[in-house]
Amino acid sequence: MSGQTRTERDSMGDMEVPTDAYYAAQTARAVENFPISGIRFSRRFIQALGRCKAAAARANVQLGLLDRVLGEAIEAAALEVAAGDLDDQFVVDIFQTGSGTSTNMNANEVIANRACEHLGKQRGDKSAVHPNDHVNLGQSTNDMFPTAIHVAALVGVEEHVLPAMRELAASLEAKSVEFEDIVKAGRTHLQDAVPVTLGQEFSGYASVIRHGIVRVENTRSHISELAVGGTALGTGLNAHPEYAQRVVGELRSLTGQVFRKAENPFEAMQNRDAAVELSGALKVVAVGLMKLANDLRLLTSGPSTGLQEIVVPATQPGSSIMPGKVNPVIPEAINMVAAQIIGNDTAISIAGMNGNLDLNVMMPIIAHNLLESVELMGNACRVLAEKCIQGITANVDRCRDYAERTSSLVTALAPVVGYDAAAKVFKRSVEQNIPIRQAILDSGLLDAARVAEILDLKGLTKGGRAD
Q1: Do the Cβ atoms of 210 and 166 come closer than 8 Å?
Q2: What is the pLDDT of residues 47-64, one digit of tens each?
Q3: Whose CA is closest to 413, among 369, 467, 361?
Q4: Which single residue of 42, 193, 205, 333 has CA 20 to 30 Å from 58?
Q5: pTM of the model
């Protein structure tokens, strides 16, 4: 922006604003008041806020509350905000007034001044387009800000998170089929356990993601409720009785999502429980992703001194000092994403508690953290699927060797010879460092044919008893 300024006025007096800025006095005042983090609202939130303002303008024109020409200018400017054309004008820190009034007014001022230009007027001409009287008509920050949160979150879930989670689940399911005949040693407590197939392990991972999809889907009925029309406290003061339903209809048209008016406008103003719920569902998925990522790191550990039952795709050199080293960098990145989402959920939970009386006063960080989690989850699931899972190969020989050597193969012997006798065979195997098959034969308990029948590795992965 140029070094020149123009004088803008709000209810507290004059403020100098850069000449080429679309924002005005209240935004400039907020920039001075909140030099805290340098963090701005995300593209997805600004898109949602622009769509909400456009929907409001359409509704007010339909109700005869705005002149059509004026309303269409406001709508056009709001849709430019939604499209990202004016992102550089959204300059207020996320750490601000707890209702989000500074950012709501940032939007109102930008839209008003851009609408002035659409009408052939000068920026700052409030007689032509007023940020409060026209752009904010029928609204309060108290209902518009949470409406934008819900619009951004639901669109993000439907268009970004769920498609990526479904891709990840499908990738894991494909591997479970590919690896269905590869028998390996199971492990519990990081100790030898009975045989399992690599495919069975991957089917479990796929199920984690499928369950996560359902958890996220189940939040949609609440996040689709919009507070719009409640204005300051939920009473709808200064809004036309038909305004809320018309805005909801226009938002459906603008987004393709099935929004609905909040069942109780007072709850919609007082609480951000729907955001807390969605964040909680994302946290559960993040917990599952971290466990999955850590399992992949263990299974691919090596190549010479670890498990090395699978090989993850080599995506980049792993060390600046150890030549040839390759690390499981994608699972490591997923772990960090999971940690961030879990941390975001903690902040959102604390913020959700601060719905003092008739309004939540920590909405900006709810908006920021929730939408960050939405972006991270979608991106992480897609990266994990495409850059890791889909390229995993199995080390069949290593898996087979571990399956043969796991001392817990003796579990299949216990129903035949008894627990105590089987325990003695286990001890012989460990003390002499020999396979269970050899330990059984050395004990003289069973002949070779019966041992082969009992220790059919693939058969052991299907359950049941050998006798």
Answers
A1: no
A2: 999 999 999 999 999 999
A3: 467
A4: 42
A5: 0.95
